[in-house]
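Case study 2.
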Amino acid sequence: MSISSALQTGVSGLRANSIVVGSISENIANANTVGYRRGFNHMVTTTASGGNAEGVLSVAAMDEIDISTAGGLISTNSATDLAIGGNGFFVVSVNPNETVATNFFLTRAGSFLPDQNGNLKNAAGYYLAGYSMGADGTTGPVDRSPFDQMETVNTGNLTISAGISTLVTASGNLPSHDTGLAVAGVPFVTSSEYFTALGASERLSFSWTPTTTSNVWDLEISDQSGGPMGTVSVEFNDSGPQAGSPLTYSGATSVAVAPAAFAVDAATGIVTLTLDNGVTPQTLDVNLGAPGSFKGITQFAGDFSLSFERDGSNPGELVRSEISEDGVLFGVFDNGMRRALYEIPLGVVDNPNGLMRVKGNAYALTGETGSFTALVANSSTVGSVISGALEAANVDIAQEMTDLIKAQRAFTTNAKVITTVDELLDETARLKR
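Prediction:
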């Protein structure tokens, strides 16, 4: 190696180590940046040579990102602050409901808050992408390789429409000792709420009268206005393994005025009511329990207790959101309903080290990342979504300061090489004097 070659090698060392110092300064500056992944440099030798000729060995600093090392989790008070417990990235976009694939990025920075339109946006200005879920709580068939079917997660002024009630399920106990008396006892009266097609809350009245026949009760059901719709006698088993369960439903009598109607299926214990509360009457099934089953009304010695579960709801507005570990965002509405609204998937690529860093602590796909897939969180090879938490930077200040000392020493030594070569060149120039 000639003197001038040594000079060039020293210059390459200065350049490479200055790049290292730059990376270290970026890491230290972002030590408190949520979801930040530290950068570092590999030193590689370079040479310009061809054929049998030997080139000058120099050094270059190659940028790398420490993708695999996760940062610690920081607890917060916001349900829309999200962290990832394990592998994967949040998928974000530059604009709400983005349609350009190159404007989608991956990030671990989950400091999301609703903007003025309710779209979840992180501190860097990127919008959280996910899959919308239908009323059945599923996304339906989606292609998880491209970004085409993703949309921006929105928790704005959401409302749910009224849900008409179709089924009321009864459960509880009738006191067996009140039947079979010389004089029929006083009826036990209770009621159940149901919802009309317009979301109005109405009630059905149930009157259970113990008869003078042991284990037999007469049930009368009345509508919202108190008008009786029909009656049915219910007899219960009094012995054997099915003691306490319904035995028979008999004597069903309808007194409802058309188009209202009352009917009983003795085989299933379901009372079908037709309610005259609209141009199209509402059909409502009341499940009392099948004969021989303990899943509905029973009769044992004890107190009277009867409760009802019904479907349907009145209209509701979103009051808060909840996010599960599998990435499902649930909306909790003021009518008591809780509905799945979005699935927040976690993006994975074949080669995370091939991701390209972009502004805002995010990463863009490149030709070196391999295939992309948006997987369901907390499944397969991806981690879980942790609500109310953020991921800290994976920067270790002690390590960065140690690396800074090493880079500084290397820079100083390379500078010494250059000053030494300068002296050698000066001596060489004096040989002619």
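The CA atoms of residues 354 and 367 lie 8 Å apart.
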